[in-house]
Amino acid sequence: MSTNHAPKRAAFHISIVVFLFVTVLGGSAQAAMPAPVSGTIVSVKGSSLTLALADSTQKTVVLQGSTLVLERDAAEFSQIQAGEPLAVTSHRSGTDLVASNINIFSKEVWKVVRKGQWKMDSGDMMTNAMASEFAQGVNGHTLTMKYSDGTSTITVPDGIPIHRMVTVKPSALVVGMQVIVRGTPGSDGTLTAGSVSFDGPTKS
């Protein structure tokens, strides 16, 4: 898997933050969570990274054995397989749920995220569940997802963002890469990372 990333990557879609960090707790708990930190890696030394932030300051990030390092790769609806865990952001259109974004979880992420379906503070619905059935429609697809409380059928329009979250080794983090980090800030200003995410190379 290629890790040759230009220093100035395009800004991440906000969905990567929603999927990784709101889905863990959901509901009002998200208000108490520290904001994610976005920056460009300028130094890698052992288990720590130094990020250059947009305000021209720097931030030290400490990686742990439990830190999830995730590459977000563009995917197609046809690549989703039955039994795969998904995070689907959707909105109500009449009585229907219509997807606006889909992330395909790695098994490591699936272990730690909140499962089920709930309404977020944004008003959108978040569904973290297993894909079970697919149907082709005139203006897109229909996706049925199964979770402990039941099932949910969601309309998937053509052209919405779909990404696969691939768990990679910390060695994939290199100087020049733009990342988003969520973690616990320390009294000395360092950030102990729970997750570090980056966009995979754009396919031609």
Question: How many H/I helical runs?
Answer: 2
Task: Assess the beta-strand content as a share of residues.
Answer: over 45%
State mean pLDDT (0 to 100 scale). Answer: 84
Question: What share of residues is helical?
Answer: under 10%
Largest sheet: 13 strands, mixed
Taking Cα atoms only, what radius of gyration do you get, to the nearest Å? 17 Å
Q: Estimate nothing, just give the exact number of structural domains.
A: 2
Key structural traits:
13-stranded mixed sheet; mainly beta; 204 residues; OB fold (Dihydrolipoamide Acetyltransferase, E2P); elongated; 2 domains
Entry summary:
The chain has 204 residues and is mainly β. The chain contains 2 helices and 13 strands, in the order αββββββαβββββββ.
Describe this structure as you would to a colleague:
The protein is mainly beta and 204 residues long. It has two domains: 73 residues, OB fold (Dihydrolipoamide Acetyltransferase, E2P), CATH 2.40.50; 91 residues, no CATH class. The chain is built from two helices and 13 strands, in the order H-E-E-E-E-E-E-H-E-E-E-E-E-E-E. Strands 1, 2, 3, 4, 5, 6, 7, 8, 9, 10, 11, 12 and 13 form a 13-stranded mixed sheet that branches. A hairpin with a 2-residue loop joins strand 8 and strand 9. It starts with 14 loop residues before the first helix and ends in a 5-residue tail after the last strand.
